[in-house]
Amino acid sequence: MAISIKSAREIELMRESNRMLGEMHNELAKLIKPGVSTLDLDRAAAAFIKDCGCVSNFLNYDGYPANICTSVNEEVVHGIPSKERILKEGDIISIDAGMIYKGYHSDAARTYGVGRISEELTKLIDETRNSFFEGIKHAVAGNHLYEISNAIADYIEPFGFGIVRDLVGHGVGTSLHEEPQIPNFHMNRKGPMLRAGMTLAIEPMIALGRGDVDWKEDDWTVVTQDRSPAAHYENTILITDGEPEILSLVD
Fold first, then answer.
1. Structural domain contains residue 154
2. Which domain range does residue 111 map to?
3. In the chain, how many domains are there?
4. Rg of the chain over CA atoms, in angstroms?
5. pLDDT tier for residue 112 given thresholds of 50, 70 and 90
6. What is the pLDDT of residues 82-108, one digit of tens each?
7. How many other CB atoms are found less than 10 A from the CB of residue 130?
8. pLDDT of 216 strictly over 70
């Protein structure tokens, strides 16, 4: 398993790509409300990416037809934006997005409530996000990759939520998906040792019910088999000689 170690120059380009992505997520969050279509969000993202002088790394990726992924309620990931998909009060929506800046990719996802949502959905969103931060406590040079995976699972399992096992995190850099694959569930092996300069997309995908999933007829949209709502939280991080740096999170 060859995991790329980024040079100082490459890290700066990754920082910039992810900084702009973090800013885009913040802007898209302001648009989420009842009555908005997922196509509206995609168009806003396209305009933002163009203004940054970047291109979407999702558009045309293996034929994917949009700039971002917009996954609503039981859709876990890869939901395709549509003018017919109108957000309603009480929905939740996951936005997964990325862009390419001077050849370097960024990748991050967030789940939002639409208007007022139930307490159980708020908890699902919050704990999915929290599991990411529990995981990256172990994202330290000298540790092993699956310490991140196990920490995410250890955090989530007591809530009774389902961990999606068919989809995992990944390395990211000059390609959107690089080695290594990063599960969000328990692994018996240690996995590769983490080294400073690795850039990883850590992305818990968590269901209110079971974590088993199906693909819809469009061959992209992943849904929970039991149609329970799901949440997704992702950031691109940099392994350093100290604490990990979260590249795609902009306050």
1. yes
2. 8-246
3. 1
4. 17
5. very high
6. 999 999 999 999 999 999 999 999 999
7. 16
8. yes
For helices 38-51 and 8-31, angle between their N-to-C axes, nearest 10 degrees: 140
Give the helix, strand, coil percentages of the chain, each rounded to 5: 30, 25, 45
Q: Contact 114/89 with Cβ under 8 angstroms?
A: yes
Contacts of 118-125 with C-beta under 8 Å, sequence gap 24+, read 118/90, 120/208, 121/90, 121/92, 121/208, 121/229, 123/159, 124/92, 124/161, 124/206, 124/208, 124/229, 124/230, 124/231, 125/92, 125/231, 125/233
Please list, in sequence order, all residues whose beta carbon lies within 8 angstroms of the beta carbon of residue 219, skipping any fewer than 6 positions away: none
Contact at 8 Å (CB) between 109 and 203? Answer: yes
Is the Cβ–Cβ distance between 173 and 4 less than 8 Å? yes
pLDDT at residue 1 greater than cutoff 70: no
Residue 9's CB is within 10 A of a number of other CB atoms, namely 10
Q: Where residue 29 sits, what CATH number does that domain have? A: 3.90.230.10
Q: What percent of the chain has pLDDT over 70?
A: 100
CA distances from 75 to 58, 90, 206, 221 (A): 17, 15, 11, 7
Helix (H, G, I), strand (E, B) or coil at 94: strand
Would you state the structure tokens that stand for residue 199, as one six-digit string?
Answer: 């850039």
